[in-house]
Each structure stands twice: as structure tokens, then as C-alpha cells.
Amino acid sequence: MFVIPLIRIIKPIFAAFILFVIAGSCSNKDEVVNFDLTTSIQPQEGGKVTPIDGNFPSDTDVEVIATANEGFVFSTWDGASKSSSKSITLTMDTHKQLTAIFEKLDSDKDGVSDDIDQCENTPQGESVNANGCSDSQKDTDEDGVTDDLDTCENTPTDETVDEDGCSDSQKDSDEDGVTDNIDECADTPIGESVNALGCSDSQIDSDGDGVMDANDECSETTSGEAVDVTGCSDSQKDTDVDGVTDDLDECADTPTGESVNALGCSDSQIDTDGDGVMDADDQCPETTSGEEVDVNGCSQRQLDSTLKTYVPDDNFEKILILLGYDYVIDDYVLTANIENLLELTLKQFHYLEYLDGEPYASEISLPIEDFTGLQDFVSLESLTIIHHPLSGTNFFDLLSDINLKKISFNCIEVVDEFSLKKNIQLEELRINGGGPSSGGCETYVNNLDLSNNPNLKVLKFNWVTFSDIDNVLANIPSLEEFHLLLRTDMPVLSLVNNANLRKIWLETSYSDFKFIDLKNGANDKLEKFVISSYAYRGRNICIEADLPEYVESIITAPGSTFVTNDCDN
Questions:
Q1: In this predicted structure, what is the pLDDT of residue 27?
Q2: Is 281 part of a structural domain of the chain?
Q3: Residue in 268, 320, 273 with CA at minimum distance from that of residue 292
Q4: Boundary (domain end) residue, out of 104, 122, 138
Q5: Per the domain annotation, does 392 fall within a domain?
Q6: Rg, C-alpha atoms of the chain
Q7: pLDDT at 2 over 50
Q8: How far apart are CA 81 and CA 62, in angstroms?
Q9: How far is the C-alpha of 305 from the C-alpha of 303, rounded, in Å?
């Protein structure tokens, strides 16, 4: 009973639903669908689009056209189309948005739009600046040469340039460091130094003698004087190096070292008295014309009257003969032969006896016992005595009138009174005794008096025994160089009065130095200080100095030597 009524109810409802669906289906076939087209322009001032927008029935074909404004060009579409064609057709099958993109016109395609491009028709491919100008279109320095060809920037105004855009003030054609507008000498050889005008010595002739400065060894040649290939005139040359220029020199080829007169002639080149013997060998000047002379330029008349020096010691005269200053042992020597000598060495050696001008015997000379005759060697500057004992001789008395500058004594044995105080020109004194290999040569010096030698600068004592070295040093404030090797013990050495010392050399093997006083207030003048030892025995040596650090820096000494400003502390 319940099922039948339910069917009755559902059946009408289902029928009504079917009718609704059929009715709805019939209404959709008659409805029209439209779609919207919207457009935009980028940039706004670039152009226009036709149509701007619209509502179009489905499947309608719509033609859209982009038109560029002046100064712009159409580029492409964006949105519903990516075409680059100005005119496109769209089928409206949905809502569509379309953007027309315009670009500023760039006629020469240089990347700079025409509105700001200051250089039209830029050649294809050339880089440009912000103004659209390439180097081939610019002339930055306004010299008439475009920048692409101009190798010289910033040419000064109004200067003439070459095809490379370079003026003379910008070029250095010969690469000498001087620009062409200043350079007075073109084509300077590479590497040569030049003056402010760009000229090297090979390009100028400063003194106008026809020889370029590079080869001219004599600058400032007097105008008009003839010169040799080195640019030197006779007034500028001294070919034989005698101190007289060639234009004045009447004696060419003067031997080296010979003194000459104002005409450039040495005594070996002139014969003043015309006797056939050159002045250098002529012991008798002013020989009367026509007189016969010997090899020494002396006539018999002159020999009879010539001044002679008395030399009573035969050993002294034998040495003078060997040296060529005398010819026969007769207790005399021609004063003219010795009075101009600058150096003299007196030592024992072999000599020959002569008879009628021929040697006939040889023997060893003996020590000189009497130095009489030495006083006439008035020009001596340097005297050396070797193996001639001086004790008991008249040696020192004969030196008083000789302006000696240097004296050397070797193996002079014992000297009790050693005084050189009359030789005020003395600059150097050397006293040498016998070393370990001397075969017994010894030198003892007592009472050495150097109190009146203000010019004494060099003092050298080697293998010598002294009685009072401190007193000697105290009286030589001028001393600059001091060498000392004593044969006696000397624990203390004082140099406090020697403020001019520059060089010191001490040998300590026999002296047993323990204390050296160097407080003379002038340590900074020292250049060299050497302490050595032939037989170093490990002794400690203290050096007391004003400037210990400086003295330490220049000293060469055994490791046990130390420098301080106070050896007591």
C-alpha cells in the first residue's frame, strides 16, 4: 500500500525535470558571446594604435595597426602578439590585451637616438660616445685631424700638425727627450745624452774648432788655432807632460819626471854653455867657449878652481863613488855633485876600486865613522842610514842646516843622544831595528828629542828598544800616524797628547801592553787602529777612550782587547 503512492509522486517530478533541461538547451543556441580587446602604447608619446580597444563577437578577426609618431619607429607587439609587423590580425576567441612598443628613431643605428645624436651617419660598427659620435667624427683638440687618426691628444691651439695630428711640441722624432719645437739637433743618435736644446756632444762643436764635442778632448780652443783630430791645439797640449804646452815647448819628448825651464827644456835637453855636455851631466856650468872638457863638462881650468866638499872618511867617499857622485878617493867630492840631491841612502854594500878608469878590486864597505861632508847636502829632503852605527859620531851635529822632511834609520845599534830638534821641517821619522830574521841587528835609542819638530806627522818604530817612549810621544802633538813594535816590556802606553792621530799600528809580542790611554779628545779623527801579535799570549789589553764605541768600530785587535771610557771600572 505504501509503494504505489511513492511512484505516483516521483513520476511527475522527473517529467518536469526533463522538460526543464530541454527548454534550457534550446535557449543557449540563440545567445551571442563577445570578447574585449584592450591596447596600450609604450612609451605613450611613441605613436598610436587603431583600434584603441573594443568588444568583438567571438571568432571575429580584428586588424590592429600601430602608427609611429615623428621621431619614433615601431619596434614590436607584446601581449596577445609578439609580431614585429605594424599591422596584425587577431581572432577574438578570448579577451585580449595588446601593447605596441615604439623606440626612438636611430637613423645611423649607432645606439644613440636621433634626438640627442650630434653626429649623423656614423659609419657602421664604430663605437660612439653618449652624443652618438665616433672617433672618426670627432676632433677633440680641434687640430684638423679626427680622433681616430690623431695620435697626439690635446694639441695646443693654433699649432700646425702632421697627418697624425701631432704638432712639433708633441713630437720627439729622434727620441732624445727634447720635443721637436725646441730641438735644434735632429736625428740625435740613440742613447746619447743631450743638452736643453736636444743636441748631443756628437752634434755640437762648442768651441768651433771643427771637432764635435764628443771627440773633442780640449774644450774652449782659442778661435783660429789649428787643432788635431782630438780637437786640441798646441796651446792646449803638453805632449811630453813636462808642464809646458806644445806651442811654447822648444824641447819635445822631455824624459818623464825631469824639471824643465819656461821653454819646456830639461837639463838633459840643453847645453847652456855649449861645451857638448848636457846641463844634466855638466858639473861645470859656464865653461868658456872653445875649452876642452871631460865627460862631466869640466875643463882643466874649472877643475882646478871648482868648489869641493871635504869627505875625510874613506868609507863615506866609497859609497859616494858607488852612487856616482864621486870618482876617486881623494877626501873630496865636487860640491856641485851633491848640493842639489833630494834623496840619499847610505848603506854598506860592495864597491869597486878603480885604476886609470878601470875597476880592479871589489870589497864590502865598512861603517862610516865620520860623516863630515854631509852638511853640504843642503837640498836633501829624504835621508836613509842603513847599518852605520851612529853612536860617537858627528852625524846629528851635521844635520842642523839641512831641511830634511824624512829620515829613516835601520840597524844603527846604540844611540845615547838622539836629537833632531834642529830639523824643524821633519815630517816623517822611521827607526828600524832587527827582527827575528835580522841576524843580530839591534837598535837601542836613548834620549830621543823630538820636542822641536812641529811638522812631524809619521812616526814608525820597529824592533827598537827605547828608554822613554811616553816622553817622546808627549812632545809630538802634530802626530797623525804611529807604528810601534818594541823589543822591551811596556805595560802602559799614553797617547793623550796626540789629538791628531789618524792611524795606529801596535805590535804587542814583546811589549806586553796592558793599558792604552787614548783619551786625547779627538777619537773621531781615528781612521784605523790595529793591534797585532806575532806570538799572542792571551793577555788582556784595556783601551781607555773618549769615544769607546767609535774606537771599537774601527779597531782590529785580539779578542781579549776591550775598549772603555774607564779601565778602572
A1: 46
A2: no
A3: 273
A4: 104
A5: yes
A6: 59
A7: no
A8: 13
A9: 5
Question: Which range, of 4-8, 258-262, 363-367, averages the lowest pLDDT?
Answer: 4-8
Q: Which domain holds residue 93?
A: 35-104
Cα distances from 494 to residues 18, 25, 452, 472, 489, in angstroms, run 149, 144, 20, 10, 14
Q: How far apart are CA 462 and CA 471, in angstroms?
A: 18
Provide the 3-class DSSP secondary structure of residue 472.
helix
CA distance 449 to 451: 6
* Cell numbers standing for residue 151: 695620435
C-alpha cell at 14: 522527473
Average of per-residue pLDDT across 287-298 = 90
E strand or H helix that includes residue 63: strand 60-68
Asked, for residue 375, whether it belongs to a domain, the answer is: yes
Structural domain tally of the chain?
Answer: 2
What are the angstrom distances between the C-alpha of 240 and each of 118, 225, 226, 270, 304? Answer: 81, 20, 19, 16, 39
Cell of 87: 599591422
How many angstroms separate the CA atoms of 398 and 407, rounded? 14
What is the spatial distance between Cα 49 and Cα 343, in angstroms, rounded to a whole number? Answer: 124
Which residue's entry shows cell 865627460?
A: 295
CA atoms within 13 A on the CB side of 376: 16
Task: Give the CATH number of the domain where residue 476 resides.
Answer: 3.80.10
pLDDT of residue 3: 43
Q: In this predicted structure, what is the pLDDT of residue 364?
A: 59
Domain end: 45, 76, 104, which one? 104
**Any idea which residue has 827605547 for its cell?**
466
At 287, the amino acid letter reads T
Region of 439 please: left (phi>0), alpha (psi -120 to 50) or beta: left
Residue 169 lies in a domain: no
The residue that leads in pLDDT, 137 or 278, is 278
Please state, for a pLDDT cut of 70, what percent of the chain lies above it.
89
To 5 degrees, how large is the angle CA 245–CA 247–CA 250?
Answer: 85
| Per-position b or e across 187-220, b if 16+ CB within 10 A of its CB | ebeeeeebbeebbbbebbbebebebebeebebee
pTM of the model: 0.47
pLDDT bucket at 1, cuts 50 / 70 / 90: very low
509: cell is 809580542
Measured over all CA atoms, what is the biggest interatomic distance in the chain, rounded to whole angstroms?
Answer: 206
CA 487 to CA 465: how far, in whole Å? 5
Do the Cβ atoms of 449 and 423 come closer than 8 Å?
no
3-state SS of the chain: helix, strand, coil percent to 5? 15, 25, 60
Check: CB of residue 506 under 8 Å from CB of residue 484.
Answer: yes
Counting beta carbons within 10 angstroms of the beta carbon of residue 25, is it exposed (0 to 12), middle (13 to 18) or buried (19 or more)? Answer: exposed
What does the alpha-carbon distance between residue 550 and residue 527 come to, in Å, rounded to a whole number? Answer: 10
Cross-strand pairs, 449: 419
State residue 528's pLDDT score: 94
Q: How far apart are CA 513 and CA 529, in angstroms?
A: 15
| Closest among 444, 509, 504 to 480, alpha carbons compared | 504
- The mean per-residue pLDDT over the stretch 136-149 comes to 85
| Unique residue bearing C-alpha cell 854631509 | 374
